[in-house]
Fold these 2 entries.
Entry 1:
Amino acid sequence: MPPKTKGKKSGKAKSSSVVDGVSTEEMSKDQLEEHIVRLREELDREREERSYFQLERDKIMAFWEICKRDLEETKAELRNRLRERDEAEDRHRAEISVYKHKLKHVLSEQHNTVSELKMDSVAVSSLVQNQHTESELRLREDTQGLQADLREKQLQNQNCIKELKLKHQVELMELTNEYDRRIREMEVKYHRRMKVMVEEDRKKQQEEVSELENRMRSHVVQLLKEQDRALRGAEEYYSQTQRKLMEEQLRLKRELAEEQDNYAQTDRKLKAAQRENQRLHGSLQDLERKLPLLHNQLQDYNQAKAQIAEGRARLKVSAKELRGLMVEHELLLQAFQKVEQERDELLRRQTEAVLDVQQRSGLKELLLQRKLAALTETLEQKEAQLCAALSASNPDPAAGGSSADRLQEIVESKDAAVRTLQDDLARECQDYNDLLQSCQDRLKTQGVPLFQFPFRPAEQILNGGS
């Protein structure tokens, strides 16, 4: 920026001959010198401003020259860019024609590949279907044979069970008759023994009573004899002394009292014997009353014994049946092991066949998917390049529209071909899943466990899952 002026006074002094209220004519020498110094300073300042403005002018001129030169260079570059754009348009049109030829070639190759893939898939599906049909026929024949063997075994088992039941009924009837006969014999024997025991008790009681009466009579007779002897002795000794007679009388009186006491005791014993006889008679009546209870207890004992014998017989029959069933179980187990070995062999063969077919079909499907993905990616790239080329080189709207229409038709045809391939693949997968489900259902009906089933659904095979 130019230097600033100091004040208004210097300006006024420059434009007027009066400086600080004093004219130049009236100024002294010192004032004039000061005025000259100020004028010189103003002159120097004006010169500085002039040089500054000249520098600014030179800068502006230099900047204008630079801008003019840049403008010319920009115009030249614009002309070069226009020329390059024209050349690029020419090259782009040439590339579009080349890409069109390449796209036609790719479309023809894709059509050939799709037709080959269709033929391969049809051949593989027919081969797999034939193999599965043969396996299903073999499995049906084996299943029918196993069912026939099972029916024969069931008929044999039913016949054996009927024979065992008949034999068991015959043995049970024989045992029932034998036990009835034994019970009747035991009842007759028991009644006889009861009668004998009653007669023996009655005879024994009568003998005891008669023996007791005989003892009492003999004792009375003996007492009478002793009394007679005593009386005769008293008569013999009566004549001897009166004193002895009196003593003898007294002694006899005492003996008579004793004999009377003995007689009373004997009478009491007789009454006690009669009471004992009555008690024994009551005991006999009690025994006769208890006889039906004992008879019932005997019947219960016989029934329990018969039940025990029947249980033992049933146990023997059950043991015999168990041995027969164990033998039959061993035979059935051997037959089952044989059938299981045959089933494992059939499963192994079927597994090998299906794994082979599955591996080949999986490889072919993987190759088809990779080819389809590569073709789709190539088609998308070509389509993007073609769209970019058409959008970049659009001098003729009608030609661009027709090219876009043709490209749209080509893309739609390719999409239709891809959808057709996807439909064919889905149909093949559905057929494979149906066949796999039918095999699983048949194995379930045959009682074969599926925890080691080696085949997977089509979705897991295509996705690469386990």
Note: The chain has a mean pLDDT of 76.
Entry 2:
Amino acid sequence: MAFYDSIRLEKGMYAAPGKTFTQVLEELDPSANYEGSALAGLDAYQRQLKRFGIKVGGAGSDAVEKFFQTSDSAALFPEYISRAVHQGMERANILPSIVATVTNIQSPDYRTVVSAMTGDDKELKHVGEGAQIPETTLRTQANLVHLHKRGRMLVASYEAIRFQKLDLFTVTLRQIGNYIASALVGDAVEVLLNGDGNENPATSKSLSAAPAYSDMIDLWTSLAPYQLNTILASTDMMGTLLGIAQFQDSQAGLAFQGTGKMATPLGANLFHVPELKEKTLLGLDKNCALEMVQAGDVAVDYDKLIDRQLERAAITVTAGFAKIFTDACRAVTYTVSQGTD
């Protein structure tokens, strides 16, 4: 059994196929071995930070150069950056609220499966004795899922940041994660609205005026047999919806203050999505509408970072989205006639 204070750390640990740096560490130094000890609750990476006395947060956080006191501790720096970016992606990320499932792949090509169900297919009819049981057919989509690489280039010299406190540096990295998350949300709503390239755009209803409560009821009923549990609204549409009297509920306001989630009288969670085009909303069943496909985790130029070559170090995420059930998402748009306020 390898103990955390005697493990040899090297950049090759980032190159293990299908594994993150922390997963490689956990195999060498399982957290289960520390149950009931002072190190319980820390994962393998956090134990390495403790080993080298590196404090990444709080008023007493260390400077960036603390990571580079030895060649072993330098190997922890890319994982620190990856985790900080992850934190930024998770803070304001609505993807978990609109994605039904996440598929991790290890290749550049991925073709999802689909079940093209008609109205009759959604009904479980009585089957007589000896009669054939109705079938549901699964098939692969005609086109591949489009994967996009989103990221930022970290441009800084080691000399410029070596004395910066890690707490402040983390704030910058979290903001990079926030930018990446916003780009991924934009990709997701684009697929929900216009399809994933397999001729499956969302059914859209165009209104001649701003939506009223009756239009929201129509959206709720038209989505059946799926459930309307999520509504995504553009910036101007968000203001329009919150101006509807039925949406001005004091209890919903209290819930928003406490959780940051805006509920609606229809039982659906309402999310502001600036990436959605103006005067547009999407109503969907988050459990059936969208699949997220990821090619690995947050990727960093670990070799450059370990060698202190920060001048052009990339931080990227490669992901794409695919429709699962096309009818589980519907769009509502409206236009305002000229001369109408």
Note: The first helix runs from residue 21 to 28.
